[in-house]
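FIELD: query
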Amino acid sequence: MPELLGPGGQELENIGFAKCLHSDARFEVAILNFYAPFQVKELENLPKLDWDLYQLKQVVFNIKFLKIWMKSGFNFQMSLGNCFRNFPELFDAWLNAKLNTFDLCFTGISPTGLLPHILNSCIQNNLAFAYHESSIFHPKNDYFYRLMEGNGSFLISAKAKEDYLLEHYPHADYSIIKQWIYLGQEEFLKIPQRNQHPIKFGYVGRMDSGKNLQVILEAVKILKEKDHVLEFLLFGDGPEMANLKALTQKIGLEDQVEFKGSFPFEQRHTCFTELDVFVMTSTFEGGPLVILEAMAAGKAIITTLVGDVPNRVFEDQNGYVLPVDSSPYALSQQMEKYLDQPDLVTKQGKRSRELFYKNLKKKPAKKSSRKVFGTSSVQKVISG
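FIELD: result
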């Protein structure tokens, strides 16, 4: 985690795994992170990999770093994170010296140019390597996946990911894990049922093109035209927010749709206190972690068929699952079920929490950590 630009699901999982390992007496953990523009108590409490200017003198006097530093407005730590992500070879002398003091490197960041470089360094230093694929496997990362065969262990959480590995990388070593709410889980479990009038649907997360949120607005328009009374709350921000706000005005949904804006990382559970039904229309996801949060919060769920959704949302039990390419009309039909039968909100919300307690409240990743990192002696783990 050379730089954490926002508290999304991937960052949560990285911090959560490191916290999990740190709580296990068999491991000593150090976090490799140069820059985070937000404060997370759990991250701040984890040991960091030490560095100083003298150790990184070959980096900070390099013209590539100096250009990044000036472009950042002279934000030194942001520039270190950015430089490490884009020019990891500049850090080789420092990183190799650090890697020699560890037994294992664990990471869950996107497998772009940085990760193959780190994996190669681990191979040269005879260091075990574990990678958590928190998103989806993508052909563009084929070089990294092939390098992982015989040189590292995958951690995956969905059957679709296992199928992809077996088809494309049959010799890969992997372990199937169950995700959990890595930070603040108990706060979600305390959320009470809401007084449901009017019924409030909502979304919590980043607003980008992959979330396909315009489908939601168009579904709300259909329901409005049928004289249904409802509200839709959007929590978060992102590159699509301006377009979504413009569409909301264009189709006349100012009274039905409210943009709640960004929220403090450690207060994200409060978003769910205002919702009755959680709606997600993503075209692709890894977990997704937010579905677990909605389950723990006791919410009925409408979602597209992405990631590990088949193991979390069950038709007519705790919600409804739609194909990824579903139309606004198809979504409006599922939303209309709650409007016509408000008792479904309570019934399915209760079932969501029951399923969470039954299958997901325990932290099976600790068991997986014993399989992947298993040893009876203390190991030193670098996480990033």
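FIELD: remark
The first strand starts at residue 27 and ends at 31.
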